[in-house]
Amino acid sequence: MKANEIRPGMALNLNGKLYVVAKIGHVKPGKGPAYIQAKMRAVDGSGMKEQRFSGSEVVDGATLDKREMEFLYDDGAGGGTFMDLKDYDQVELSNDLLDDTLLYMAPNSSCTVLFHEEKPVAIELPSAVVLTIADTAPGIKGATATNQLKEAECDTGLKTRVPPFIAIGEKIRISTEDGSYMARVKEE
Q: Which of 11, 22, 41, 133 is the most exposed, having the fewest neighbouring CB atoms within 10 Å of its CB?
């Protein structure tokens, strides 16, 4: 496949190592040709790597199997246990693989886990998740839509900034891309 077809979540074989693409950017500098900047995580746990590709460069892609799984619980050491929604098999994922994804996952929430040769290699989160506020400063009476934000901590441990009218126990929608507040979620 050509480098301009690379997308987040894809797997690439580079120099005999398997990487999962985390972020991709198309860069057009003032001088010189445009290129693709890819931030990738090594599947073997050796860390992140940034690589530049020209748009027409040929890269070796790998096939990933996507499985819908449910996050059951955090093991306390940064890892987590997930259950396959089709056959109910449980898989433990390490802290190296999860990175900070558990901050966006409440227990019993679903996600897509990517497997390569029956080994979990990455997690795909939805673009936004709903979390509950666990701690924040008291709201200001009569505060509505203002551009001032206050610190808040969600039930998963994620720290974010929310409008002053958000109170403890409320559900909010959070962007998984940058952890920012998107909207208040009404209880049904």
A: 22
pLDDT bracket for residue 83 (50, 70, 90): very high
pTM of the model: 0.71
**Is the CB of residue 140 less than 8 Å from the CB of residue 159?**
no
Q: For residues 127 and 177, is the Cβ–Cβ distance under 8 A?
A: yes
177 Cβ contact list (under 8 Å, min separation 6): 127
How big is the CA angle at 85 (ends 84 and 91), to the nearest 5 degrees? 15
Higher-pLDDT residue of 139, 6: 6
The string of DSSP letters for 71-124 reads EEEE-SSS-EEEEETTT--EEEE-HHHHTTGGGG--TT-EEEEEEETTEEEEEE
Q: What is the pLDDT of residues 164-181, one digit of tens each?
A: 888 899 999 999 888 889
Q: Which domain holds residue 174?
A: 128-185
Same domain, 172 and 136: yes
Cα separation of 86 and 165, whole Å?
A: 41
Q: What's the domain count of the chain?
A: 3
DSSP state, residue 126: P
Question: For 132-152, how does the pLDDT look when each residue is reduced to its tens digit (9 = 90+)?
Answer: 999 988 866 665 655 788 899
Mark whether 164 and 114 lie in a shared domain: no
